[in-house]
Amino acid sequence: MDWLQILVLSVVQGLTEFLPISSSAHLILVPVLTDWQDQGLAFDVAVHVGTLTAVVAYFHRELRVILGDGFASIAQRRQVGDSNLFWAVGLGTIPVGLAGLLVIETSLRSPLVLAVATILFGLLLWWADRIGKRERDEHSISWKDILFIGLAQALALIPGTSRSGITITAGLMLGLSRQAAARFSFLLSIPVILLAGGLYTIKLVQAGTAVDWSVLIGGALLSGLTAYLCIHYFLKLLERIGMLPFVIYRLLLGAVLLVIFW
What we know:
Layout: H1 3-16, H2 23-34, H3 41-58, H4 60-76, H5 83-102, H6 111-131, H7 143-154, H8 163-173, H9 178-207, H10 213-241, H11 244-261
């Protein structure tokens, strides 16, 4: 891999992991447009480590409180402070974890499925943003809300859906503010990225392939920096710009995929 390829793929991963625009669509489109060879499992692991580091670094103060209150609630067998978010993130991850074990994702990886999902779930995001009351924050999430958002996240196994997109959509449908829906989506991404990174690592170890550490470190740093800036500015601008720019982008992206692969 040359450094242009490393730069482009790392930035794409850092942006699309958290923006509601579908990372799978972009990771398929990039090699089509550039005629690059597949970057390999080792690089996938590195950029996932980068995005995981970014979200943990950005929310490190909140995570310290959430984890402390969560473990305190276990010891005291009652709700403590922000322990509800601790349990919400943990329980909200179960549906996508189970679905990942049961669903053979490769059967869904057709360009047509990807293009249609990019468009349809983009329209669903627009609808949720229009009808959502946007009156609640993430601390008000109930068990029913957790189940709904968790089941929605499992739909992200369909390429083109976007994990962040579908969880933000679910949050908006439940009346969360845009920022609250995005913040909970980002917190919910931590165990999901851990699971994905762990799966990639297992596959990498089993493959026993040699790795270029300079490429992996560069990819992790670039994806992490991009993801951190993406989270920061997305949350900062979200209430002002809303979801419409991302919806329009998804519709255009889906149309491009249909033109290329139809």
